[in-house]
Amino acid sequence: MSKINYLLALDGGGTKITAHIIHLNSDTTYVAHGGEASLSNNFQTALNNIEAMIYNLLEQSNAKLDEVIAVMGVAGGGSKELSERLTAALELGCDIKFAQLHIYSDAISSLYGANEGKPVAMVALGTGAVGARLTEDGNTHLIGGWGFMADDFGGGAHLGLSAVQALLNDIDCFGAPNSKVTKQIANLIGCQRAQLSTWLHAAKAIDYARFTYLIFELQDDCEVAHTLLKNHARQVEYLIKKTRANSELPVMLTGGLADVTIALLNQQMQQLITPRLGDSLRGATLLAHQHLQNDYIG
Questions:
Q1: CB contact burial 91-115 (16+ within 10 A = b; e otherwise)
Q2: CATH number at residue 191
Q3: Which domain holds residue 142?
Q4: Domain assignment of residue 1, yes or no
């Protein structure tokens, strides 16, 4: 068995991938970015994008697969079925077999990254939304994050969905978009029934999430956008309460919507929040080092 000389960490969410590979002796780091990687939303697209990231990093670093430990924190990675499917697809379909491969939910990698592996209540707000606790005894507990169809309230996809629902309500009641935010969305997806039906039939979580920037942009000029964000904030506050439960753990928010959402929360909730120390990629890196240390001790 070859000596492990490289550490590859990957953070894959519903919108984008960030990954790096580190040469362990020199600490030289190579970075790559790519498209969406949600195993639960679109497995094949996620696989294609993850494969491209891996080969990009291998080419940059000249690393060989059998000298690399890889840790991936990916949306949907908490599912045993999906993580095993990804492992098999990489090995059998893409001819990618690392010295070690460990796949986690991006919620777990975010949890470890948020407070540098120390106890914390973490809420990740991206395309989806999920909470997680890391306790003093090292146990982890996931809250929410059941996927766009059933849950993920507080995430960008559901915020975008609420704006599309406002547009559909305008069409039903007024025959046309009736607010600044619904007019903007209509410019992107149409306002005729046939156009909207076609878009709705094909739309995925990432397509709804792309409307979040419009909603935040118009919050001071559009009552509907303001109301949508008010509801979004209440959903996030509820997720924070569920995640912290009865503990006294510090609360940290991470993900693409974290910083813009904090200002919308009530004062009591804002006072609970501590600035995060790291992100999901940092968490994946810490987990990889943990695996290496455990192997060394073993």
A1: eeeeebebbebbbbbbbbbbbbbbb
A2: 3.30.420.40
A3: 122-275
A4: no
